[in-house]
Amino acid sequence: MLPRLAHRHGMSANEINDLVDALSIRAKVIEPATSSAPDLCDPKDQDVLGTLLRRCTPVLPIT
Fold first, then answer.
1. Do residues 26 and 16 both lie within one domain?
2. Co-location of 40 and 19 in the same domain
3. Which residues contact 19 (CB under 8 A, 6 or more apart)?
4. 20-53 burial by CB neighbour count: b if 16+ within 10 A, else e?
5. What is the pLDDT of residues 3-62, one digit of tens each?
6. Which domain holds residue 3?
7. 53 CB contacts (<8 Å, ≥6 apart)?
8. Interacting residues of 5 by C-beta distance below 8 A, sequence separation 6+
9. What is the DSSP code (8-state) at residue 62?
10. Do 22 and 38 sit in the same domain of this protein?
11. Residue 51 pLDDT
């Protein structure tokens, strides 16, 4: 159980488990796009940016 979530939102352990289950069913694994953004303050943010770029790319080509 996530104690901070329970405390902040007043959710029971069962409600949190149900929420996590529902989110895990809808989750998709997205591999980060490779890009080079040399002006990032933290190089570890590269994967976060790559994931955003991959997710924002349309699945079907727009013609």
1. yes
2. no
3. 11
4. eeeeeeeeeeeeebeeeeeeeeeeeebeeebeee
5. 676 778 788 888 888 988 998 888 877 777 776 666 778 878 888 888 877 776 555 555
6. 1-30
7. 32, 33, 35
8. 11, 16
9. P
10. no
11. 80
